[in-house]
Amino acid sequence: MFSIPHLDLPPMRGASGTVQLPGSKSISNRVLLLAGLAEGTTVVHDLLDSDDTRVMLDALATLGCGLQREGGQVRITGLGGQLKVHEARLFLGNAGTAMRPLTAALAVLAATQGGCFDLTGVPRMHERPIGDLVDALRPLGCSIEDLGQPGYPPLRLSGRAGGRLATAQPIRVRGDVSSQFLTALLLALPLVTGPGPAVIEVEGELISKPYIEITLNLLARFGIAVQREGWSRFTLPRQGRFTSRATLRRRRTSSPWAPSRRTAARRSASRAWAPIRSRATSASSRRPARWAPWSAAARAGWKSGAAGGRCKASRSTAITSPMRR
Asked: Which domain holds residue 303?
């Protein structure tokens, strides 16, 4: 993805001011999907404006969710777990945070309520693996057809109304390829849990655990309390249903040593204290730093509040660019 191994930022004489930082893509698309599946209306403030969130919003509108934009907020009227549109072709760009959760959600809904959905994207998306998620869904009774290379998008999800899924046995998914596969199942299975709970078992070492924390915390905000046994077993409650949170708002805050995208200017500003106020995302959910995965997980979430911060600058900062998940 990146052509250079690192980026050196030389010292600057000074830096000051107020920076409005964008929200988290990982949180934004989870919130959008949960609001779209929930019963009732959810108002989301300070939503990240990105390609990923745009394709998710387009997909929700195509599926029949009510969407209203009012300034810096989006009002989403959800489906209440019931399909309004039973046939659609969804273009999801290169948004893994849209492709994988929507694959799981629409696969289980089509299998139980009937429908046919084609999920496609840009050529790069068709090179991103999704086979482990498909392998977890098919034993449940989901009909998923590869429209291209097996194990990769594009996909066709179909089913007949009245179908039942085999949720009595544990659903197994690999955890060492992408945490998005587990997230997709966690977001989708509450739609189809029966009289008994549904259990997901993770095979292999689960990577990117902070992203699963985001998922679990947001599920709890929408009424689904998942029981976790370490990072290998997750139990979803029986006959769960998503309930709207009414209003979700980013908490604006500042953390002195948050992701290096925020602090690079602070650290290299000068040898003196550099006052920089940042308005950024933070809350009970933890989001790992995209550009500095070795650092402590950065707080991220949706809540109200405000704060500012100062940081002592160092002589220089090197930002290493890891491979994107």
From this structure: 6-22+251-320
